[in-house]
TrEMBL record:
This is Polynucleotide kinase-phosphatase. It comes from Paenibacillus kyungheensis. Coiled coil: none annotated. It comes from the Bacteria.
Length: 192
């Protein structure tokens, strides 16, 4: 199979549930020198920068606690995405590559990047990590800070619901990577 091309400049959107391996893929691309250290932005990183959120334990709060936790998280997350978007826009203006590491499970989340790509005349490609519920849950259990089974299952469900329409959303290229193919994929950076 031919390698997946990471564009010279533009936006690469990662998509996948928690534990699908988005951050791990970015680390791998850096190690293989396909991308440079500052060519990725992650929503986790910006939630830390704007709101001190390192990790939230979503497991088994009471209904009321869960609601309060979510409201606080949402306020910080909204600001985090705003700032991340500004950085992304600056990078597009300078014709730099940016890989965006966030779940991007809703069509509305993704539509923004299509708009930005058109506005700044840069390519926008999507890389979706299609990982089974079983694997996602197993990885979550083995993680230092588990996201919680419920949350992972909910995200896996959102992923499946939205995957069919992806190719008509306006991305330049869409790669949906299946779990069993992942290890064999070669990554390559375009030079212009
Ligand atoms: P989040 O959205 O919660 O940040 P993520 O999609 O970025 O999740 P990672 O942080 O990359 O996921 O990985 C989550 C866990 O799954 C880590 O413990 C990681 O070691 C493991 N993992 C990721 N990719 C793989 C893989 N290909 N094979 C085995 N384990 C993996």
């Amino acid at each position: 199979t031919s390698p997946i091309q990471i564009p010279y400049a533009g936006i690469v959107l990662l998509m996948g549930a928690s534990n699908s391996g988005k951050s791990t893929l970015i680390e791998q691309l850096k190690q293989q020198q396909v991308i440079a250290e500052h060519e990725s932005l992650s929503s986790d990183q910006f939630r830390k920068i704007v709101g001190n959120i390192d990790y939230i334990d979503w497991r088994r709060p009471s209904r009321e606690e869960g609601e309060v936790m979510y409201q606080q998280y949402k306020r910080i997350s909204d600001q985090a995405f705003k700032v991340m978007q500004d950085v992304l826009i600056a990078r597009c203006r300078l014709n730099k590559l940016t890989i965006v590491d966030a779940t991007h499970l809703q069509p509305e989340d993704r539509a923004l990047y299509i708009t930005l790509g058109k506005r700044y005349h840069v390519p926008v490609i999507l890389i979706a990590l299609d990982i089974s519920d079983q694997t996602l849950i197993e990885r979550d259990r083995n993680r230092e800070h588990p996201r919680g089974r419920q949350r992972v299952k909910q995200q896996a469900h959102q992923f499946k619901r939205t995957i069919k329409g992806l190719r008509s959303e306006g991305f330049g290229v869409v790669h949906v990577i299946k779990e069993h193919k992942y290890a064999d994929i070669q990554w390559q950076r375009s030079t212009n």
